[in-house]
Write a structure and sequence with these properties.
This protein is mainly alpha-helical and about 140 residues long. Helices cover about 50% and strands about 5% of the residues.
Length: about 140
């Protein structure tokens, strides 16, 4: 068997979610404050919201839809401003939710150093995700 030389490796392909970073932890640390804030601002029972979110997550096959609140049966249009605008000096619910996603998405220990090493060896890194591209592209470009 021929030995592979490191100069023969042109690129490395990797998945992002739960390979480079802990996606589930990021999701939990952003979704729970999002859900709790909706309950706090609207007074809608948390169990009703959980059932409605679950149905929509199953319908679309993803939990990564920031504007899904517009399809929640218990959220009427009169609540939309608290999701989209600063109200009473508070960040909008969506701003807070997206900030929490960005702030809670961190690479596993040693991953960044390993990726830098691969890049410094002259290899390209190709990252794959089935997630909404918006958040990973922000993180990868910072």
């Amino acid at each position: 068997m021929e030995q592979i030389k490191k100069e023969d490796i042109n690129f490395v392909i990797t998945d992002l979610d739960d390979t480079i970073w802990d996606w589930l932890e990021m999701w939990y640390q952003s979704f729970m404050p999002y859900l709790n804030r909706i309950v706090e601002e609207t007074g809608i029972n948390i169990n009703i919201l959980k059932k409605e979110f679950k149905a929509l997550h199953e319908k679309y096959g993803t939990t990564e839809m920031s504007f899904i609140y517009k399809e929640l049966p218990s959220i009427n249009q009169s609540f939309y401003p608290i999701f989209e605008e600063v109200v009473d000096g508070k960040k909008s619910i969506l701003h807070e939710y997206n900030s929490n996603k960005k702030n809670n998405l961190t690479a596993y220990e040693g991953v960044i150093d390993t990726l830098k090493f691969i890049k410094n060896q002259g290899s390209k890194i190709v990252a794959f995700t089935e997630s909404n591209v918006f958040l990973p592209s922000i993180v990868l470009n910072t």
